[in-house]
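Hi R.,

Here's the chain you asked about this morning:
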Amino acid sequence: GYDIKVIYNGIDIFPTCLNNKKPLSPNGKIFIGFVGELHHRKGVHILIESLKYVSSSCEVIMIGSGDENYIEKLKDLQASSPWPVKFLGFREDVRHLYEKLDIVVLPSIAFESFGMVLLEAMLWEKPVICSDFGGMKEVVDHKQTGLVVPANDAKALAGALDCLLSNPVMRKQMGILGRKRLEELFSDRVMVDQYKKLFFH
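And here is the predicted structure, written out as C-alpha cells:
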C-alpha cells in the first residue's frame, strides 16, 4: 500500500487592516456575502431561498459574474426575499470587499473540491458558513471558525445565518479563530514547507 499525505492549498497571508470598516450602505444592516461564480453548482439559489426563513435583519451581497440565465433566475428569486439582495458583478477589488462583509457563505451543491473563498474570508477574520459538500468541511472547523450545514438545505442554512446574525460576539470570535486556523494550516508558507518535507525527507 501507499501512504497518503494530504497537503492543503495555501494562500498568501498578507497583513489586513480591520479598523477602518466602511459600510456598503449606510443603513446599519449586517452584510452576508457570496463571492465567486454565479452558477447553479455554487448553490447561490439556496442562499436566496434561505432568506425567507431568516428572521434577523440582513442584506446579501453577491460579488461575481456568471451564467446570465442563472443570474436572471436568482433575480426572480430575489423578488420574494424579505431581505435585500445586491448583485455587484465582477469586481477587481474583491479582496478588499471582504472587510465590508460580516458573514461569508459558500453553499455549493456540486463540484466544490476545496473552497478558496473560505480561506480568503478567514484571512479577513470573517466567520463562514458552508455546505458539507466536498472538502469545504475540512476547511471550516464547525462551531469554531464557522458553521457547516447540509448541502441543498435552505432551512438549515437559514438557521445557521440566524445563529450568526443574532450573535456578534460569536461572529467576532469565529473570525479570530478562522484567521488563526488559516495561518496554522492553509498559508502558502505551510503548503511549501509540507511539500519540502514530502519530497526531501
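One quick note: The chain is about 40% helix and 15% strand.

Cheers,
M.
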